[in-house]
């Protein structure tokens, strides 16, 4: 069939391509589990600055307060939820089922509201505009900010992480880059009334955040806030992000930040499969810092901050071909949706083309995930912090529930086990 006659056929090249692609398509089996991490939608600025020309009318411009989700943010999350419904139409039940989907958010108004708006797009019964008789809100789980070890980065209570960050910021390369912006930051101090030179770069980022939020909502910027100033502030922000998630010691930083969430995602899938649980999807409503830490752990940070409603997805599929000796017959594919006007980007874990066999994915991410004994968080390797617990999962039988509560460390029927286990993460 591949002889000269076939090659000479007008459709020959196309048929050859199909023959090459067909085996791979056949091997791509059904979707079995999904984990989604998304940033909240558009919000008001987090703060003002002393010379902000709009600071006297903050309550008028942002009636719900600084840092709160805007109407545009709600719309963005509704749109993301509708995209997820179209993507997983054949995977999820038409209506929300608590045993299939679990939603976790950080304990901030904007992420909790974003999760609710997303779910309103994903599930018809949670959508606005329907009749009261059919409207059903969907639960979103959270823990206090001070207890959130899964979605809040960087870890403000982790001295070891700050040792690593200090090592990065004191390095010659970082200091040289910073010195190049000293004059710029000095001028910006005069414009903003803030102390910026010698301060954490996050303070300069907050100026950028305020200006970008105001610009996005049609407010005039002060004359000094030129495009060049905004670009320079963005470059400074990129340097700061790189220090948090990049080298040196990027893997150890990841073990204390994004690797914790990555490990929880893999552990959730492993337990679902091992126990035959019906959970299909875990959703995390969080922040740009959460996504950046996760991208850093995956080796996928590209120098760009995630926009509002950006979504990073992990799709676990069961291959129909030969079983991998180490990881069974499961693969992981990654996608990143950072533009609602375009198709999501397909991402590949460095060292493993997509779709990546689960065993290979585990192997490649081992250095950035917390070891089984935990990672030291108190400096000088004094105390090992416990590994972050995974999301509560559901079991369908009383016997399984009892076993889980007694010894497996996995939450079944939430109300009965939550108090004994310390709450969901």
Automatic annotation (TrEMBL):
Belongs to the histidine acid phosphatase family. Gene3D superfamilies: Phosphoglycerate mutase-like. Residues 1-27 form the signal peptide. The gene is ACP4. This is acid phosphatase. The chain crosses the membrane at residues 390-413. One of its GO terms (cellular component) is lysosome. Keywords: Glycoprotein, Hydrolase, Membrane, Signal, Transmembrane, Transmembrane helix. It comes from Microcebus murinus.
């Amino acid at each position: 069939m591949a002889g000269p006659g076939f090659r000479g056929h007008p459709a020959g090249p196309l048929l050859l391509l199909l023959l090459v692609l067909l085996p791979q398509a056949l091997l791509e089996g059904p979707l079995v589990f999904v984990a989604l991490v998304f940033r909240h939608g558009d919000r008001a600025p987090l703060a003002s600055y002393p010379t902000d020309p709009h600071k006297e009318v903050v309550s008028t411009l942002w009636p719900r307060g600084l840092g709160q989700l805007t109407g545009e943010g709600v719309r963005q999350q509704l749109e993301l939820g509708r995209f997820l419904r179209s993507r997983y139409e054949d995977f999820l039940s038409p209506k929300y089922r608590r045993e299939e989907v679990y939603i976790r958010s950080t304990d901030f108004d904007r992420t909790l509201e974003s999760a609710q708006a997303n779910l309103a797009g994903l599930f018809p019964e949670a959508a606005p505009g329907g009749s009261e008789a059919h409207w059903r809100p969907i639960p979103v789980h959270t823990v206090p900010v001070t207890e959130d070890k899964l979605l809040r980065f960087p870890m403000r209570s982790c001295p070891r992480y700050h040792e690593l960050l200090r090592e990065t910021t004191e390095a010659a390369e970082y200091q040289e880059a910073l010195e190049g912006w000293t004059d710029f930051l000095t001028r910006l101090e005069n414009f903003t009334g803030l102390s910026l030179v010698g301060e954490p770069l996050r303070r300069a980022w907050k100026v950028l955040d305020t200006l970008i939020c105001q610009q996005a909502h049609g407010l005039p910027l002060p004359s000094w806030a030129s495009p060049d100033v905004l670009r320079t502030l963005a470059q400074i922000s990129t340097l700061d992000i790189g220090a948090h998630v990049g080298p040196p010691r990027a893997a150890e930083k990841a073990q204390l930040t994004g690797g914790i969430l990555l490990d929880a995602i893999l552990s959730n899938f492993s337990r679902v499969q091992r126990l035959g649980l019906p959970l299909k999807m875990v959703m995390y409503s969080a922040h740009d810092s959460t996504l950046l830490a996760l991208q850093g752990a995956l080796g996928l940070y590209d120098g760009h901050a995630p926009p509002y409603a950006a979504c990073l997805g992990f799709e676990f599929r069961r291959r129909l071909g030969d079983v991998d000796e180490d990881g069974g017959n499961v693969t992981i594919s990654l996608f990143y949706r950072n533009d609602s006007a375009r198709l999501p980007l397909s991402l590949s874990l460095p060292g493993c083309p997509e779709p990546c066999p689960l065993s290979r994915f585990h192997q490649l991410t081992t250095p950035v995930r917390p070891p089984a004994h935990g990672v030291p968080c108190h400096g000088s390797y004094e105390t090992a912090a416990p590994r972050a617990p995974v999301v509560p999962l559901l079991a369908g039988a009383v016997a399984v529930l009892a076993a889980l509560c007694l010894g497996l460390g996995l939450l079944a029927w939430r109300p009965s086990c939550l108090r004994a286990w310390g709450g969901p993460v």
